[in-house]
Each structure stands twice: as structure tokens, then as C-alpha cells.
Design brief:
Layout lengths: L2 H9 L3 H10 L10 E2 L7 E12 L10 H8 L4 E6 L6 E3 L1 H10 L3 E4 L2 E2 L2 H4 L6 E3 L1 E2 L8 E6 L3 E3 L2 E3 L4 E5 L2 E5 L4 H24 L3 H9 L8
Helix pairs in contact: 2-6, 3-4, 6-7
């Protein structure tokens, strides 16, 4: 199964189910404090392209601009991951969100703030962040790396990981374990459906508990 096929399937799966699948495999990869800004574009999945921000130093090699990363490094279907340590500064605004949208990115995730909230929240592009802000990042942060492993809101994200987002937040699927995670997630989907039907029938609590316990059992081919 290609990465594109995996991404298409993960896009339709709730992050809660993916989280349960990661738990089965003793993996971790969920963020906290990052939520969708858009009123409509609230679900996505895509390959991670990472950028790392660190406290400003003022020396070092010249790094590409956001626009160059969005136009050249990131490919259609990718998710731009902007790791900035939960900064209160904004990292992007309306113009850069538009560039990403027209480039065909699956989404933008910012461990920090976004300016032009009103405009960005109306776009069909999923943008996830900690909130809105008007404080510029350039006074305190600088870009230190592109497509490197990053710490993002409590999760480790590596280039090529599959990031899944919905109203509950973000979940990170390791790129080299994506097929395993998908297999477990699809099994959990079946169990969740059985649980829903059992609740609707008003099955006994013992029967519901028996169904629920299966969520922790690793599916083996």
C-alpha cells in the first residue's frame, strides 16, 4: 500500500481510534493544546514536512523563507508542521495560508499562534494552532531546521510521518509503522460500531464491558 493510499484511509478515521491503535502497538504520538481554527475545515491527514524554530541566535546558515518551504519543499498533500515550543508569537498569517492552500497542502499545524484569524478561519485549508496572536516571531525566534525530527506540542514528529487531525487535536502515525497502525485502527472501528449498536440495544453493562475490552487486544493477521 502506498503512502498516498494510507493517507486517504487515515483521513476518514477519527483521531480517537488512531490513538487507541497506537496504544495497542505501545506507540505514542498525540499532541495537546493544538486545535483547528477553521469553522469547516476540521479534518485532514497528510505526510509531515517539519520546520524547527528555536530561540533567536542571530548567526548560522541562511534558512529558506516560509514561502520557499511551502512552494518547494512541501508537496501537494503534505502537512506543514511548525514546531515553535508553544510560543505566544504568530508564525503564519493569511498570505502564507493562501500559498499553502493553492499549493495543495493538506494542512498547516503551528505550535504557536496564527494571525489574521478571521480570514484564515474561513479558508478550506485546515489550520491547527494554539490560538490567535499579533506578536511577531522574528523578535524572539528563528528558523533552525527544515525536515528534521521535532518536538511538537508533546509529540515527536519526523519527516514523512502521517499526521491526522480533527476536532480532538492531532495524532502522529510513525511513517515506518503506518500500515500496522492502520490495520489496528480499522479493527477498532469495527469494535466501536459494535459498541454503538450494543448501547442502542441497551445491552447489559457486562456485555458492553466485554466489547470494550477487545479494544486493547492486538489484532494479528
Amino acid at each position: 500500500m502506498t503512502t498516498d493510499d494510507l493517507v486517504r484511509q487515515f483521513k476518514d478515521l477519527p483521531t480517537g481510534w488512531v490513538t487507541d491503535a497506537l496504544g495497542r502497538l505501545k506507540l505514542a504520538g498525540w499532541s495537546h493544546g493544538i486545535y483547528p481554527l477553521s469553522r469547516t475545515a476540521r479534518r485532514f491527514a497528510g505526510r509531515a514536512v517539519t520546520v524547527q524554530y528555536l530561540p533567536k541566535r542571530g548567526s548560522g546558515p541562511k534558512m529558506p523563507t516560509h514561502y520557499e518551504i511551502m512552494r518547494s519543499t512541501a508537496q501537494p498533500g503534505d502537512v506543514l508542521i511548525m514546531a515553535a515550543g508553544g510560543t505566544p508569537c504568530y508564525l503564519i498569517g493569511e498570505n502564507q495560508a493562501h500559498v499553502s492552500m493553492y499549493r495543495g497542502l493538506a494542512g498547516i499545524c503551528v505550535d504557536g499562534c496564527v494571525r489574521d484569524w478571521d480570514e484564515v478561519s474561513e479558508l478550506p485549508l485546515p489550520v491547527f494552532a494554539r490560538g490567535a496572536g499579533s506578536r511577531p516571531y522574528s523578535t524572539s525566534l528563528e528558523l533552525a531546521g527544515v525536515n528534521v525530527p521535532v518536538a511538537f506540542a508533546g509529540a515527536q514528529i519526523r519527516p514523512g510521518d502521517i499526521v491526522v487531525g480533527d476536532c480532538d487535536g492531532l495524532v502522529v502515525v510513525p511513517g515506518d509503522r503506518a500500515q500496522e497502525v492502520l490495520l489496528q485502527t480499522l479493527d477498532i472501528a469495527v469494535i466501536e460500531k459494535e459498541m454503538e449498536e450494543g448501547i442502542k440495544r441497551q445491552d447489559s453493562l457486562a456485555d458492553l464491558a466485554q466489547i470494550s475490552r477487545r479494544k486493547k487486544v492486538l489484532k494479528v493477521l
